[in-house]
Amino acid sequence: MTDNAFPEADRAAVYRAIAERRDMRHFSGGTVAPALLRRLLEAAHCAPSVGLMQPWRFIRISDRALRGRIQQLVEEERVRTAEALGERSSEFMKLKVEGINDCAEVLVAALSDDRERHVFGRRTLPEMDLASLSCAIQNLWLAARAEGLGLGWVSLFEPQALADLLGLPAGAKPLAVLCLGPVEAFYPAPMLVLEGWAQARPLSELLFENQWGVSQ
Ligand SMILES: Cc1cc2nc3c(=O)[nH]c(=O)nc-3n(C[C@H](O)[C@H](O)[C@H](O)COP(=O)(O)O)c2cc1C
């Protein structure tokens, strides 16, 4: 800790939001007040970005019929994903992978068009635009958790189909359908763990020293 550290309670709140953030797929309807939604989007907009390119664009889906069409795109991809999974197909189909119809708000997060002109930090790693957008979504996710709102990141869709549906310009790319809103309760652990789909690995297995695979 340094002199620049937050007070104890503030630090605890930051770590609490990080630990208790969950990807949510069960929502209890309701609404998100405009001022709160604005606050969350401002939090997203505070994110770091490579070369300060700020590649994030958010599209709020307020049209109920459009929301339904997005859900349909996700459903189509859910079926294709199940087919691609082979022997785990039926197990996958039992998972709840989105809450588009039940959440208070749907936001689509997209990469901007015209990203090629941003070379700083992307000459060898062009995907740093995606990393930057991900930082913005994580900010939104953590702020939502602190506000008591759930957020679910849905990436099961054909990007071009969603881009066409929302009128994205050439070069822009939707990366996330974000379901946001009140929930009954936050899952105590990742839902994929609770459902027996996957196990989370401990940090100790993923932390190396000096050379890949060498533990401390
Ligand atoms: C980039 C990204 C895409 C994701 N896409 C989906 C998705 O399409 N459907 C879904 O149910 N969960 C999706 N998730 C949520 C993950 O399954 C979840 O983060 C992971 O199981 C860990 O759970 P936790 O977020 O509650 O800690 C996505 C998460 C990330 C980071």
Number of helices, where a helix is a run of at least 4 consecutive DSSP H or I residues: 7
Please tell me how large the radius of gyration is: 19 Å
Contiguous low-pLDDT stretches (5 residues minimum) are none
H and E string = HHEHHEHEHEH
Mean pLDDT across residues: 97
Count of individual beta strands: 4
Compile the SSE list and pairings:
Blueprint: H1 8-20, H2 34-45, E1 56-61, H3 64-85, H4 89-93, E2 105-111, H5 128-146, E3 149-154, H6 159-166, E4 173-182, H7 191-194
Antiparallel strand pairs: 1-2, 2-4, 3-4
The site of flavin mononucleotide has 11 residues, from strand 3.
Keywords summarizing the entry:
216 residues, alpha+beta, 4-stranded antiparallel sheet, 7 helices, 4 strands, globular, binds flavin mononucleotide
How would you portray this structure in words?
- Strands 1-2-4-3 form a four-stranded antiparallel sheet, sandwiched between helices.
- α1 packs across α5 and α2 runs antiparallel to α5 (128-146).
- The chain has helices spanning 8-20, 34-45, 64-85, 89-93, 128-146, 159-166, 191-194, and strands at 56-61, 105-111, 149-154, 173-182.
- The chain has a single domain, classed as NADH Oxidase, CATH 3.40.109.
- The chain is globular and about 50 Å long.
- The protein is an alpha+beta fold.
- Residues 22-23, 25, 97-98, 153-156, 190, 192 line the site of flavin mononucleotide.
